[in-house]
Amino acid sequence: MYPPKFDYHRASSVSEAIAMRKEHDGKFMAGGHSLIPVMKLRLADPGCIVDIGRIDGLKGLTREGSDIKIGALTTHATVAGATKADDLPEALTEAAGWIGDPMVRNRGTVGGNVAHADPSSDLPTVLTALGASMEIAGESGSRSVGAADFFTGLFETAMGEDELLVSVTVPSHKPKTGTAYSKLFNPASRYAIVGAAASIEVNGGNCKSASVAIGGLTPNAKRCASVEALLNGKEMTEANIQAAAEAVANDLGDDILGDIHASIEYRKSMAVVFVKRAITKAVERTK
After folding, report:
1. Residue 173: how many CB atoms within 10 A of its CB?
2. Are 146 and 178 within 8 A, CB to CB?
3. Is residue 243 assigned to a domain?
4. DSSP 8-state code for residue 67
């Protein structure tokens, strides 16, 4: 299929990109792996593309205190291939390694993936569990939004039309803390039918703090407060982890997604399974 006709402009800076988008009423494009497919399906007709793929300073990993800043144009392959010296949480590197195929990972960008906010994508779930923050630039300056507030709905984020995502900041690996991502994926597309991420801090065998997120079966990734409440302060036994995972039903809400690949009831059942797997793997990594 062919996309509708569009004008093309290449930006050399963030400020120029924002100005171009406003002047031409365009759409930002980074790696193109999110925008181009929906244009070819005629689900999007922006009329103008503002290519931000060559803006200097938006690629790579940089340390800022105890955090790691990931430039919006950093590819999934870069994140997946991060070494221990980069100090990225394991949940993030393993999730990036499961995105698409090598061609997608070498072209697709973290910023494009996050801004697209596909409910079946992996990174929104992981970033929500990690407590990541998004740096957004606009005409009036820049602002930071936490992941839990950034993903607002089906392909919807807290960004305005005139704003551009420039980086994602995640906490570096912490002592006695394990992170993990587990998903039930569509065998053809590799998109998550159900995805679960966990960040667990364990001290003396007991959970000191827990952050768990779910995605794939909800319009947007969300924190699992009920699961976290049953983990905090508890000994990390299989029985306690199972009980906490079963509480995810209280966190899903009423708007659960179902389609030809998996029914609503099946996804709800699998949510328990994959939340348990993510927690169990995260706990193992604390050792």
Report:
1. 17
2. no
3. yes
4. E
Residue 165, pLDDT > 90, answer: yes
CATH number at residue 78: 3.30.465.10
**Beta carbons of 59 and 79 less than 8 angstroms apart:** no
Strand-by-strand arrangement of the 192-203 sheet: 177-185, 192-203, 206-215, 222-223
Residue with tokens 């995972």: 245
Express each pLDDT in 115-128 by its tens digit.
999 999 999 999 99
Q: Say whether pLDDT at 204 is over 90.
A: yes
Q: Which phi and psi angles does 39 have, rounded to 5°?
A: -70, -40
Out of 140, 171, 202, pick the residue that ends a domain: 171
pLDDT of 164 > 80? The answer is yes
Residue 31 pLDDT class (50, 70, 90 cuts) = confident
pTM recorded for the entire structure: 0.94
CA trace torsion 125, 128, 133, 136 (10° rounding): 50
| 132 within some domain | yes
Residues in CB range of 235: below 8 A, 6 or more apart? 205, 206, 207
Answer whether residue 135 shows pLDDT above 80.
Answer: yes
Mean of pLDDT values over 130-144: 96
Long-range contacts of 259-268 (CB under 8 A, 24+ apart): 261/186, 261/193, 262/184, 262/193, 262/194, 262/217, 264/217, 267/193, 267/194, 267/216, 267/217, 268/217
- The whole domain housing 18 covers 7-51
How many other C-beta atoms can be found within 10 angstroms of the C-beta atom of residue 217? 25
19 in helix, strand or coil? helix
Tell me how many domains the chain contains. 3
